[in-house]
């Protein structure tokens, strides 16, 4: 953490706001995520969860406030943006695998074309991570030949191949059939155990209880509640959190 | 799938091979139909020509393809014209694709100047007659720019014309790739150019191929319009021949199929290319 400013924060958001036209999707969000910390974000649909984590790797541009990732300030300097993206991996709800490339090529594209690593080395790296997500035997297949759960695990491996310091997950299991959710969550739990800094948007509360160091509840573009899982589930402070939890846990 | 569907579709298929096909559905009947219809067309033409006392002189045609003088093969005007048309088509295609790609990228770019420039070009090209554009290129731009080569003026003009259609095809192809692909590429650190190169275009090109073939075929067909500005391509040669020999029926009956051979070969080639590109999906 050479560039860090002295504290232990991997990600720091200060007063971050984001508008879509006249609609304010994020209102003055403050959030600090320490190195190795696992944060789970939940909240009703449209509350700005995706927008928040997409601002962290500049898939969305915030209009005001400050975002610092591993000591690098997110501004309009393309070098800074590229440096931050190099440290932040992202997993999407719809997997977004490259359909024209094999599983192995999906994993080697970033290392080879963005990092300039040679093919042999990139393939070795890719196989290592495909083993970590338990599908090395699928390396030669194309994404369309895999189940949803396998595709999402490939997407995780593809991100890990860029050796990020932070992983962002945007509802990684909500496009999956129930029987495949567990295989993806298991991989995420194993990843958490390696000490990876993670921010997960998810409504899988079992996963949250196992893995999260911090729970965050968002509503209407604001962080309404941030607490340890123990406090968050047994004794939420805000009425909105209580209502949300009662709805989601009743399922 | 219901049980009924299964019997008609999948299970009955082996049996169908043995069963006799009704005669009006057989391939032979198709051939007979085709022969009868073309016979009818030829007969009508022949009758029409006879009624206006047209003298067919097919025997005079071969020497307009080639002659052998002192054991040396010399191409006639029709083949020379075909070569020029091929040259226009080849360079025209390359330039059409380049102009189309640049315009598409300008339109998709964040630069306001680039987008306006592309839009002005597209609207002015697509809303004026090609013949007027050819005239402007030939009678106005050529002297102003000091180009003294009608062939290249013509190629450029055609490329700018078809390029406007190509750019829309390329833009539509690029836009039809899901934006999640951009986001995934961005998140693994690919630059915009590399994302286009390795992620977007490989997915967009198979989608672009069929409409792009149409545009390239148009390029070949529209090259005939250059016969108005002293480019010695196939149609010019044909018109000159008719001026010399008055064999208008024979000449057009030969030149039409010559264009057909060009365009159909092109679409066959692209069709083959398309199957190769799509093999993995
Ligand atoms: N590109 C966009 N243009 C306009 N409005 C947008 C855009 N993206 C998101 N929004 C709006 O911003 C708000 C927050 O969206 P966001 O996707 O962050 O919500 P979310 O909490 O992730 O919801 P979900 O649980 O449905 O994924 C929503 O009201 C959404 O309609
Ligand atoms: Mg979302």
Structure described in brief:
The complex is a heterodimer of chains A (251) and B (281). Chain A is of the alpha/beta class and 251 residues long. Chain A is built from nine helices and ten strands.
Please give a handful of descriptors for the protein shown.
heterodimer, A: 251 residues, alpha/beta, six-stranded mixed sheet, four-stranded antiparallel sheet, 9 helices, 39% helix, globular, B: 281 residues, mainly alpha, MetI-like fold, two-stranded antiparallel sheet, 12 helices, 77% helix, disordered N terminus, binds adenosine-5'-triphosphate, binds magnesium ion
SSE order and pairing:
The complex is a heterodimer of chains A (251) and B (281).
Chain A lengths: L8 E12 L2 E12 L3 E5 L6 H8 L7 E6 L2 E2 L4 H10 E4 L11 H12 L4 H14 L15 H13 L5 E5 L7 H16 L3 E5 L3 H7 L2 E6 L2 E6 L1 H6 L4 H11 L2
Helix pairs in contact in A: 3-4, 3-5, 4-5, 5-6
Chain B lengths: L2 H9 L1 H6 L8 H25 L10 H4 E4 L2 E4 L1 H32 L3 H15 L3 H16 L4 H26 L3 H9 L4 H31 L11 H12 L2 H30 L4
Antiparallel strand pairs in B: 1-2
Helix pairs in contact in B: 5-6, 5-8, 5-11, 6-8, 7-8, 8-10, 9-10, 10-12, 11-12
Bound molecules: adenosine-5'-triphosphate and magnesium ion.
Adenosine-5'-triphosphate binds next to strand 2 and helix 1 of chain A.
Description of the molecule:
- The complex is a heterodimer of chains A (about 250) and B (about 280).
- Chain A has about 250 residues and is an alpha/beta fold.
- Helix content of chain A is about 40%, strand content about 25%.
- Chain A is built from nine helices and ten strands.
- Chain A has a six-stranded mixed beta sheet, sandwiched between helices. In chain A, strands 2-1-4-5 form a four-stranded antiparallel beta sheet, covered by helices on one side.
- In chain A, strand 1 and strand 2 form a beta hairpin.
- In chain A, helix 3 runs parallel beside helix 5.
- The longest helix of chain A has 16 residues.
- Chain B is mainly α and about 280 residues long.
- Chain B has a single domain, classed as MetI-like (MetI-like fold, Orthogonal Bundle), CATH 1.10.3720.
- Helix content of chain B is about 75%, strand content about 5%.
- Chain B is built from twelve helices and two strands, in the order H-H-H-H-E-E-H-H-H-H-H-H-H-H.
- Chain B has a two-stranded antiparallel sheet.
- Chain B is globular.
- The N terminus of chain B is likely disordered.
- Chains A and B meet through helix 2, strand 6, helix 3 and helix 5 of A and helix 9 and helix 10 of B.
- The complex binds adenosine-5'-triphosphate (ATP) and magnesium ion.
- Adenosine-5'-triphosphate (ATP) binds next to strand 2 and helix 1 of chain A.
- Adenosine-5'-triphosphate binds next to strand 2 and helix 1 of chain A.
